[in-house]
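Interim report, section 4.2 (structural modelling).
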Amino acid sequence: MNKAVPHDSAKLHVTGAARYVDDIPIPARTLHLAFGLSTIAKGKIKSIDLSAVKEAPGVADIILSHDLPFKNDVAPNANDEPLLADLNVNFIGQPIFIVAAKSHTEARYAAKLAIIEYTEEKPVLSIKDAISLNSRFEDGPRIYQKGDILSAFKTSPMTLEGKLELGGQEHFYLEGQAAIASPQDDGEMVIYSSTQHPTEIQHKVAETLGLDMNLVKVEVRRMGGGFGGKESQGNALACACAIAAVRNNSTVKMRYDRDDDMKITGKRHDFQIEYTAGFDKLGNIKALDVKHYVRCGWSQDLSLPVADRAMLHADNCYHIPNFRVESHRLKTNTQSATAFRGFGGPQGMIGMESIIDHIAFTVGADPDAVRKRNFYTAEKKIKDGFKPQKSHYDMEIKDFIVHEMMEKLLEDCDYQTRKSKVKEWNRENKILKRGIAFNPVKFGISFTLTQLNQAGALVHIYNDGSVKINHGGTEMGQGLFQKVAQVAAHVFGIETNKVQITATDTAKVPNTSATAASSGSDLNGMAVKQACDIICARISSYFIDKYRPNTNDVKFKDGRIKGSNFDIAFEDAVHEIYTQRISLSSTGFYKTPDLQWDRIVGKGRPFYYFAYGTAVSEVVVDTLTGEFKLLRTDILHDAGKSLNPAIDIGQIEGGFIQGLGWLTTEELVWDEKGDLKTHAPSTYKIPCASDRPKIFNVRLFDNLNLENTIYKSKAVGEPPFMLGISVFLAIRDAISACGNNWPNLKAPATPENILKAIRYVDGT
Amino acid sequence: MDIRFLLNGEPVALTNVDATQTLLDWLRIDNQLTGTKEGCNEGDCGACTIILIDKEKSIRPLNSCILFLPQIDGKAVRTIEGIRKHKVQDKMVEFHGSQCGFCTPGFITSMVAANINGDRDHNTTLAGNLCRCTGYEPIVKAARASEDEKKPAWVEEDFKRLSDLPKSGSKELPKSKEELAEILKKEPNTQLIAGATDIGLWVNKDFQKFQNVAFLNQVSDFSNIEEQPEAWHIGAGTTIEKLRSWASDEAPSFAKLLKRYGSTQVRSAATLGGNIANGSPIGDSAPALIAMETELVLRHSKGQRKIKLENFFLDYKKQDINKGEFVEYFIIPKKNISTKCYKISKRFDQDISSVCGCFNIVLDDGLIKKCVIAFGGMAGIPKRAIHVENKLLDHLWEKEVLQSCRKTWGEDFSPLSDLRSSSEYRQTTAHNLLLRYYYETLGANTNVQDVEP
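Predicted structure of the assembly:
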């Protein structure tokens, strides 16, 4: 436990032996699928001519919506997302028909040959359009609030208004969406899917085939990256494969070509944030009114919880006595935006960080001083008897440790000295301006849909002492399997290499939640621990019985099982237990305690605890072209008592760079017809090696989770993503050195957006 | 057509291969060698990187998704399965350089190729490999920690076996310029394929089929760089990577631009002739070569024709090339090789320019005595800024003079707005790049990449 051991599959990764869905050996006569896609953003299908598709080489089957015998729906919950469009078309890239062919390339080729006529309607594309047409999900905006902002604004010495535009983000998992359906002799359908949510795939495939869930089995060994993009977006492929497999009595495989993947699947939600803040001349915030306009795309998917989480992170680290957040979930004729690392949190948080900077700019104060003034009360003080403050959703914030983290980070990275050097540089240099900024992160851990906070596990010890574990979590690169194996090894007191990790399988652990919300190791680690504890209790009770009265306690350590008067090798002890006809297998189950949340009222305790992070970034910006370079980043992050520091640091570095990408190089561009023009890595630019900071220091903050999580660790998947915000703030800091206006910088901060902000600031 | 090559040390002979079948599909589908991954199918992510070794002892990382089987005829392919045990693999495990692992085989092959070639500029050698999980830090650490590794034994084994490999002799693989000219004479519509970094996409993404093809990589004397008294002669088959290596000694600003041309994998396949002949309005070599007053020699079965490169580009994707002609070589006057080249893109490495501006400006006693300015990304073709040039010529190299051109750019260019940038940004930046050059001559800090933390 707490050891920096490598990812369990690392050796398979570096030799090319690790197998992903597209690498699974398949029967020679397997059929391959491709979707025929809509070429208009909104309208009705008038006619479909598939004659050229039928005649294309290798084509075996074509499936239209009316060929679907059961439910035509792949939505995670709202029943609003047909697998195949029947009459209405809602975005460019929507699947209209399925082609099955002898090869992947033949299927892709044939799918392009359909001639479809439409009655076109004017699509709703932008946030502005959707607001003016009142095109939205839910009956109106969600509002979470506390205090009385109206009277607080009246008594606030100063006020300001502002706006922040945030682009979306493509997941760009290196392995595209993929699924295989393999019909079995007894009517069971086995699905191999690159999914974060095997149970949902099982559920949707069962619905599509009109089967009970016990006739569908879904297996996931690993994904080539997920990031939220495989929480619901794999449903369509798995269902398409299943239906084609039944029709053709054949194994069927589907994987999206990269361009199709980017054109069809959902992305991070783009946001427009408007704010009005009331504060005093020191920057103490008295009142805050924030509006989120969220572009959700054509179907609901996970947009409601995403937008909720944005609201729940609109305070970030700051206690605001009078606070109102209003969230509009807008329906547009674009890809249906979906889960993406942070799940709305990043948008909510960068809104608040911008407000702080804007206030500091207005009162002429140091932004970090304004941050400190408005921070929640520190955990230490609460331990000393101070009363915890409540967030705008009425949750007491008891574990707030950013004061200490900030102090340590700023000292370690020589922040104040560097800050004055930046000022000095900016006085001396006309063309290149430097900027430096700090940002804190407070991220709520738990699914906000409380029922999802449960997990199951299955643990076996074989009679030679080897252990096999299974749980509901999926491996997408985050090292979950290794962490959970470490938990099992720790409980049994054996080496981690004695614990065999197995593919996630709906036949072994049922009714699982998606591996999402950073919850993987919290939930599954606990479920596995509970299963191990049950087996240990059986073993202990046998040996206590056997060696009584001298032994009343049994220890599992160093590969041995010990009492005060015995000491046996683990494998021998296990074999003995087997001969005594005692079960060496158990399920385990865990549910997160103490959660209570009403998303409509907006009050309760949606989160078990918070994970914290702090970052400082320094950049240089070219005022002639808007180009920038990230010079240095220092991070201090809270992973509680880390289960595996190497894996956690990997999550922090990778999350930070992904956040950097969201806010700088990654720009999604749709044309005026709603056609996504950035649908491949040639046009959509995720960070590459040279984009990482020239100096990059990442450290873990030594801390124990206040709550009783798995060995006092904290979730680490999403929170570090938001440390990338420091880069955006640093760029804005550099821009503000160019003149006297508040830099209204749009995200992503491409050279063009930076130059635009510079020209606004310097008044040209 | 018939081809022969080595796959992980073993000879392979294929008959009747489809000329545009990719190596990646052949590896994964026909041979179940699934360690090499498909990430984008267009040469931008590097997940499909393999190592290609040839008789001339070059060792190149290439994207197998846009590498057609005939291109590997007579060469040795090493896939991740054929790397055996290399130090970079151990170091990647030790430094936690893989998370989801999907990009990892491509990283390993790129790193091994760079390691064998002694290339230690890891940011550059890895610019063509995308990783979405790690943030690259542990990967670069692993690359650094492996720098002292010896050359693996299989490199010499492959060299040795390559010399024993019989020639395939397919007619689609001409061995000389004469043979190529004959092919084009007989069948003028033959699609010429050099590095396939562009044509690979026509096939993979647009499903283009060709009646006749000719692959250029076995044409002899086609990729030479020759020094003449007044000029450099660059063969059309010269890869961008070879050109970059030449330029880093002879034309440093051009070399910096070429370093950002695609990635190591793309530059190791793409040729200068291909970049010019395809007439891309955003290809980075054209504006630089136009500013350098480069001439182009076109060859035909009956002889040669020499034209100025700036006159070669007629209109969007329309070039002055006749049926039966091919681009033979380029003539770059030595006096122009210090031309300043600037590129603006959303991402620094491996991105397509929104604006690429090249300035060949010569001062004499403070006066602008020569001024050739060419831009990519500003029009349907790479193009000179004649009005701006005229306005500057014989004037003082002073800020006021340069600023007086602010509006003149509009007479030269009316750029499009597209996914890379708006028309307005392109127009502004074109002017600002001229200012950048000016401030640079004053010794000011003008390059964000050069700033140290």
